[in-house]
Hints:
Blueprint: E1 2-7, H1 15-28, E2 36-45, E3 56-64, E4 70-76, H2 79-102
Parallel strand pairs: 1-2
Antiparallel strand pairs: 2-3, 3-4
Amino acid sequence: MEIQISTDKNIHGSEQLIQRLKVEFQSTLSRFSGHLTRLEVYLSDEVSSGGGVADRRCVIEARPEGRPAVAVTHHAGSVDEACHGAVRKLESVLETAYGRADHRKGGESIRHMPENNPQLGVPVRDGDQGR
């Protein structure tokens, strides 16, 4: 998964910031890395003149394989908070999209499990094995 991070003229995009954000995005979205080809991250300061409460904005556009792009936006007081909020929103959107696709009705049920399954937590008695 390729990650591109862009900043506007009001946010200093240091190499340390870029690397820290890439690590956060990769670790948070690691389970979707097989589905995503690229993340485009846009950081901006909407009110560049002063210290507004929620003037930092992070927009993340995810490019899934074979599907249309998905974008989320989060506003916060700092770049780190904005990115953290945006990646959590993206995680939720991707979970909805891929969680439903991977867990369809008609999958394996309890009836298809072997009788002596320790996951069920119910031991099989000697007299019940013949059923």
